[in-house]
Structures are given as structure tokens and as C-alpha cells.
Amino acid sequence: MRLTRPASFMRNMSRTHFREVLSLCLLWLASALAASAQTFTVLHNFDGTDGNGTGIKLAQGRDGNLYGSAVFGGADGCGTAYRLAPSGTFDLISTFSSQACTPTGGFALGPDGLLYSNFQNGGASSDGGVFSLSGSGKFTLLGSFNGTDGANPAALVVLGTDGNFYGTDGRGGTEGLGTIYRSTPAGAITALHSFGTVKNDGSNPGSLIQGPGDAFYGVTGNGGAFGDGVVYRIALSGGYTILVNFDGSNGANSGEGGLLLASDGNFYGGTCNGGASEYGEVFSMTPAGALTVLHSFGGADGECPNGNLIEATDGKLYGTAIFGGAYGDGTIFSITTSGAFRVLHNFDGSDGTNPYGTLTQHTNGTLYGSAAFGGSTGNGVLFSLDLGLGPFVRFLLNSGKVGSRVQILGQGFTGTTAVSFNGTPASYTVASDTFLVATIPLGATTGPVVVTTPSGTLTSNVDFRVIP
To answer: What topology does CATH give the domain 39-386?
Structure first.
């Protein structure tokens, strides 16, 4: 479509104004061209019977499918678990009951191929518990919280380098302000830290991530010196250190999300409030705790980034904001490690409302996620965002010693001819087209893992760290 203006308009426009309008037009054109390179697709509309209010994050299984949970819905209203093929095919695989209700922690893939997570309500003491799920939907209750070691967990479950699972909850512990807990694969739960007002070390913790020295790093939504939450480090032995006290200007009130450890060695995260406009922010932090605000949300670009950020294979960070944007229903955004910010998608209700959780980059390169509400029935959606990023490979764990076996996820593995660790050839076994196991070879050093397949080479999205 061609737009024209009357001659009087051009005569009355100053050269300065003309340059300003021209710059705006070029900026709009550049944005439109960039947007055309991405494709947002609603893959599934929940209808209540198959789920309502989606969980925190989708996890890629050995079979190449994505697995997730809905917090509510299903036959008993206690939530569901489902399988999503990369193409968008949806299968309901499990429905939760009052004995194990409200699955909130997403899924973590275990070394045995099972999916591990937690639920908020039910269990032996009605304080929630931990469970495993097979790809076909077989549910196994592993352990129950008793209040002291945790209660009503809501944050993401993560697999540690020691083979145990780690998480947080916001209501357990000695003062009912939350704990950091460890769960063995068999379900034995131990509280590593109990948050409290006497220590004033935070409350309502979000998700964990393992970082330097195998310590875990996390954030809390409240507590600390100013009541706005903290960033902390906790050793596997339980030693707890506050790294940052949020004070509003540098952020406030993180949600169920946590931190991202990016390839540059720094941590990145978001807060639901605080920042220049009180709509939340994105920040970077060194391992020592030096925090820098990268972006303050203003409402039009989003409000309250609740989930974790992810680092995609293009080196950019991607996340979601629950509210704000063009329609007030939330946004998907990208941000570079230097702070260059861009809104990629504005939810409008019909394609979802309140993208509450964390995005996942499948090894096919596409981003996948969920919105808690909205869609055709108002019960939430599953979506994909194709940015044109290529396929890659991912590890179950990003570190190991020479001689240990490394589980690798990807696609097109049938007919694989080579696997190397930073250039050193490794022995391997192809288990399926989407899963293989390699042995860290003698002489291997920290660096990328490359899998050579009939369709080409696939490089890991992060470096594999060889432990001396």
C-alpha cells in the first residue's frame, strides 16, 4: 500500500521534522522486516479437561518430545501432565488427584530417563511432595514434605551434578518462610536451608541454578535488608551467603523464576517490581555479586518478568513478562548481555494471556513456552516461536570427568559417524534418533561437543566442562 501526503504537508514540514519522520519510518521498516523473520504459533489450546494454568517450564525428553504440567484442570481439577511433539501434536499422559495435587515445578529430566518434579498439595502431610513420571505417564510418588523440610513448593526442580534434585518452597521451614531442599532420586528430602526473619536472609525463594564451585544460586521474592528480596549462594554443604539485597532501585520481588548462568560467566535474572518505573527489570550479576540493571520495564514493553531467562544459540537472552505490552496480556522479549532490548511478541488474549513460565529452546532451534490463561477457551495455550535458529545438541549435565558417560539430546542421530569433545574424538552409542551417550575421552578439554550426523554437524549450545 502506498501512502501519500498533500503538498502543503511537505511545504510546512521543516527539514528537521522531515529527518525525524524519515528516521521513524526507517526504524518502523527495520522492525517490520525483523519481525517477518520470526513465526509465532499457537500449538495447543487447553480446554480445562486437559489442563488449566500451565506450569513453569517444558522439558525435552530423550524421545525428542517436550513434557510439561498444568497446575489445574483435569478430571479432579488437580492438574495434568502432557507430551508435546515439536510439530505441535498434544497428548494428555497423566491426571493428578487430591493425593498429589497441583504440579508446579515443571519437569527435570533425570539420568534414568524419567521426569522429576514436585506438587504443591497432597502427600502424607498435605504439604506437597516429589514424584517421577515416565514418558508414557506412569506416576510414582517418591517423597512427601513434612513442613519442616519444606511445604507447598512452586519453583522449578533442577538436576544437580551429584545426581540429586534441588528446589525451593515458600511456606516450609522453621518459620514458614520457605526452604532450599535436596531430594534424592528415591525421594529422600533434606532441607539445606530454612529462611527466617531472625536471620533476615530472604523469604519466598524462586528457582535454583548450579554455578561455580557446584554451589547453587537463587533469588527470593521478599525479605532481606530492605524487604524486597535477595540474591544468594548456597554450597552443597549448606553454607548460605547473601550476595545482593534488592532495594527497589536495583529491583524488587522476584517471582518463581531464578537466575541464568550465561556463557560469559555472569548471571542474569529479572524482578517483578522495582526499576525505574516499578514494572520490574532485567539485571546482570557477577559471581561475586556486582549487580547491574540492564533494562527497566515501562509497561508498554512488558511488566513483571516472572520466569527464568534463557540463553539461545544466537547468544541473546529470551524471556517473558506476565503483564503489559500492547494489549496488557504480556510479552515475549529478547535482550543482549549489553542490554539491547526488543519486544518479539505481544499477547492479545486470543493467543494467550500471562506467559507465566520459562521458555525452552528445543534442540531443533525453536523456542517453546506456555501462557497460563487466554486462548480459545481461556484455559491457556502452548506456543512456539521460530526465530530461524538452527539445530544443536544439549547435555543432561554440562560437566564430568574423563571416562564418565555423557547423555546428549538432539535429532538426526541415526547414522552418526563421530562425536568429539573440543576436538578430541570420543566413543559413543546411539540409543535413538534423538538420544546418544558418549564417553569423555582421555585428553579432552573444556569446550564444545560436536556430533557429526548424515545431515551435517551439530554443535552444543554451551561448552562442556571437563573436570580435572
So the answer is: Methylamine Dehydrogenase; Chain H (2.130.10)
